[in-house]
C-alpha cells in the first residue's frame, strides 16, 4: 500500500505556525518577515500506510550537523533544499496526526511534492523483511517507523559520498559545507539566508583547483567529482534503474567503487539491498553485534547478512541502530587538512 496522497492548492504565504527558518540546526523566524515575489509556496499531504518516523527516514540525507542543504526544526519538521530537474526547490515536511504535511517553494516545488511519498518510503516494503537474529528483531520492534527514503536524485548523494572517501566524516562534512555555501545558491522560500541548494553540474566543473584544496579535498576525490558531473545526465538516469543496473552505471566512472555506489543508491533509489562494502568500521560493527567477533571483514560480513538477501541494507541499518558496537581499541583515523598545507 502506498498510502493516500492529497494535493492542495498553492498559497501566496505561509501560515504563522509554519513561518520558521533554520538557524544553528533549529529554526525560528519572526512572523511578518516579507516574502519575495515568486516565493509562493505549494503544499501537499500524504497519509502513509503505517508508522513513519521522520527522523529515521530522512536522517541519512543529512551530511553533518551544519549541512547547508538540511535542517531539523524544534517541532520535528525537516527542511531540505535540492536541485531537481525542474530547478531548485525547498521542501518542508512535518508529521501531524499520522499525516505527512509538506510545503515547497521554488521552480522545483512541484517536482519535490509529486515525489513526497517516494521520499518518505512509499516504494519501500518493510513487510518483506524477516529478522533472522534476536538483536535485529528487537531493533525492528523498537523502530516500526523505519522506512527507506528515495530521493530520485543521484548527484546530490553521489558528490558528498565521494567527499567521504578515505577521510573522517568531519573532514567530509566540512568540505561539503564550504563548497555548497560558496558555490550553491540560496534556497527558494523563507529559509534562503540559511539553506543552500547545491551547485549544478556546470558549476561543480568550474570550481578552481585551489578551492578544492582550501576545502580539504584532494585531487583524487575532486577528479572523481569532475568526471561524474561531466556525465551528470547519464548518472541521473540511474535513479530509475534496478540496483544492479544502477550500480554498473555509477561504477563506470573511475573513482566510484562499491562503497560509493552503495552509499549513493541507498539514498537516491531507496535500495534495500545496497550493502556498503569497503567501509572501515561497518564489518566490525556487524560482526560484533551478531557474533561477538570485532575482526570481521567484508567477506564475513556479507556471509552474516546472506539470510537478508534483498534487504541487506535494511538489516545493516537496524544493526547500527541497535547500538551494539565494539568498544574502541585504536585511535580514530588521523585527521588531515590539506587546505592548510
TrEMBL record:
Biased amino acid composition, Polar residues: 7-20
Record carries keyword Heme: no
SUPFAM superfamilies per UniProt: DNA-glycosylase
Transmembrane segments annotated in the record for this chain: none
Domain of life (superkingdom): Bacteria
Electron transport recorded as keyword: no
Keywords: DNA damage, DNA repair
InterPro entries named in the record: Alkylbase_DNA_Glycosylase/TA (IPR051912), DNA_glycosylase (IPR011257)
Region annotation (Disordered) ranges: 1-51
Protein name in the entry: 3-methyladenine DNA glycosylase
Species assigned in the record: Streptomyces sannanensis
